Amino acid sequence: MPVIKPPVKFAIIGCGNIAQRHARHISKTGKLQAVCDILSQRARDLADQYNCRPFDNLSDLLRSAPEVDVVAICTPNGLHAEHTIASLEAGKHVLCEKPMALSVKDCREMVNTAKRTGKNLMIVKQNRFNPPVMALKQLLDENKLGKIFNIQLNCFWNRNEAYYRGSDWKGKRAMDGGPLFMQFSHFIDLLYWLAGPLKNASMIKRNFMHREWIEFEDTGGVLLEFENGAIGTLNFTLNSYEKNMEGSITLFGEKGTVKIGGQYLNTLEYQHIEDYRISDVNEHRPPNDYGFYQGSMSNHDKVYQNVIDVLTNDAHITVDGMEGMKTIEMIEKIYG
């Protein structure tokens, strides 16, 4: 695929909270040419901030901004597939926020469109860049833990009434999808990245505290069986009292045990490994800050550096559409 001469030119579709983070990193690595949101004022506000053109219709943007190389999809989850496909069809590369889509069917259509148009489809999975996670991945690639027997993933966060009441789409099944798509898809991605695909899953779920605000569960427990023979558990809740408590993953192997924890999988909490020790990985970087709550680790700078490298130096895509689809396959299997 021909490389693009810098600066790479971007557009952002959807001008909500996460778009601010995308715009900041685009301004450091490329050029933001246009933004789009069905709420015209929100698009104008972001455009004024970054001296670019606002649109309130995606078709108008794609038709009127031929210079755009990459479209960043920051719209509600249920619109990711539609907006990605439209952008690819218009001849643009795409960087799509998590979750890639809300069904494997939509993911396949996105991947097939990228292949047909010859454009890159890149998925945001910034937790793969957390230093302890990268160190654990290297351990597994080098087989330093031996055979993996057991994997435990804990996601204990808080999402309160204001979080849902302040949005016209969060909490709605068709646009949000639920906590495994919305809050915890990055964590599911790491299950796949570190342990491989699922063979079986069995889930119990409940909505204890959010019945008036959301159309799905706020708490769940899942028993997991991986194709490599390992078993595991996934425990998640949106009911951690008043604030996020923990995002952690623990691996038990024949040659060692490792736990990565903290609120956002950013701290190496425990290690005991045969003839090996992980060092210098507890880099404390601020999480995404959305006011009254915080989200996953802020590694969008690394995501955007990869986008630039892919388009200007023909580098390898960190997470392409096929990789992104694996997360959705796992979530569908968990929900049964």
Helix-strand pattern = EHEHEHEHEHEHEHHEEEEEEEEHH
| Cα end-to-end separation | 39 Å
Count up the helices. 10
Which overall shape is indicated by the principal axes computed on the Cα atoms?
Answer: globular
Helix proportion of residues, in percent? Answer: 25-40%
Average pLDDT, rounded to a whole number, is: 94
β-strand percent reads 25-35%
User: Ranges with pLDDT <50 over ≥5 residues?
Assistant: none
Radius of gyration: 20 Å
The largest β sheet comes out as:
7 strands, mixed
Structural class: alpha/beta
Biggest β-sheet: strands ordered side by side in the sheet:
8-9-10-7-11-12-13
How many β-strand stretches? 15
Structure description:
By secondary structure, the protein is an alpha/beta fold. It is built from ten helices and 15 strands. Strands 8-9-10-7-11-12-13 form a seven-stranded mixed sheet, with helices on one face. It has a six-stranded parallel sheet with strand order 3-2-1-4-5-6, sandwiched between helices. The chain has a two-stranded antiparallel sheet with strand order 14-15. Helix 1 packs across helix 9, helix 4 (80-89) runs parallel beside helix 5 (104-117) and helix 8 (185-195) crosses helix 10. The longest helix is centred in the last third of the chain and has 15 residues, at 321-335. 46% of the residues are buried. The mean pLDDT is 94.
